[in-house]
Amino acid sequence: MRQAIDRLGMKGSVTVVNNGKTLLNYATGNKPDTSYLINSVQKSMTATMVMREVEKGKLSLNDTLSEFYPEIEGSDYVKISNLLNMTSGLDLQKGKKLGTKVFISDEDNLKHDIKYTTFDMKSLGKWHYTAINYVLLCGIISKIENKSYENLFRETFIKPLKLQNTEFLWSDEEKLLNSNWVPGYIYSDVDQAYIRVPHATAVKDAHNELGAGSIVMSNHDLMKTIKYILTGNVLSNQSRSILFKGKKPKFYNGGFYNLSQYKVANGAGEGYYTFMRATPNAKNMIIIQSNHTTKGKFKLYKSKVNDIMSMMLSIE
Predict the structure, then answer these.
(1) 3 state DSSP class of 71
(2) For 127-137, what is each residue's pLDDT tens digit?
(3) Which residues does residue 287 pair with via DSSP β-bridges, in sequence order?
(4) Which of left, alpha, beta for 130 (phi over 0: left; psi -120 to 50: alpha)?
(5) Which end of the chain is more exposed for a tag (fewer CB within 10 A), N or C?
(6) What is the DSSP secondary structure assignment for residue 270, as one 8-state letter?
């Protein structure tokens, strides 16, 4: 396992759990408890928070987007379930980006994103990956609970799990350093070297990707959280069977690609990679994180990590 992972050539932290026991926990260039921006892997956590509202009876997967944001074109047709599985037919207007030019607040970002959200009826029910789905879900649960997404996240995961190496990227320097956070680096072909991503740039993008890329986590905290989502009391088994069951072609739902043997979540951006693979019972898991990225490598790494996970499961 270690040879296969090391051949990837990533600088970062590695954790492998096999049959419920930690098989590997090491780092190259960093430390095992280093925290990284997990980017889109956070979507599974946001989806869990949404499903908790369903369990409380405050939300239904069949509720339409118009109940919360009627100003969005097509909102009468888009259901909460469509947002969770990326089949909403929604996207950002061509040439527009998430968030205001200068971050003011989550509310201002949502107003901006809603203004430039487009709807294509022909795409409704068809899978299309875009972060706007999960940004809107953040707004919905914040409306329901009358709390910020950050506070809801802390109440759902950080406090009950006592996560020591988890923080929002926009937190103050002391909190970030206490979480063992490291900045991200992107390889520059021009400079032939890894260039540090400016923190202000990364923070702005983290605000823009609210619920879909704003959390830094260590491997241990991520492993603990994924196990909690898949097997803990944060959700009922019935809720999990609904939320984490995807349909062709991508089997995407609830922030995971739900493959036959295991679940997949990947994150990339701001100089970070996160690759998570876990069986439904969370007894077998691979987490690889890096703060050094190279253009064109992400797709290759995703495939290779799948191969490594399949290898581990086949040996059993």
Answers:
(1) coil
(2) 999 999 999 99
(3) 15, 276
(4) beta
(5) C
(6) T
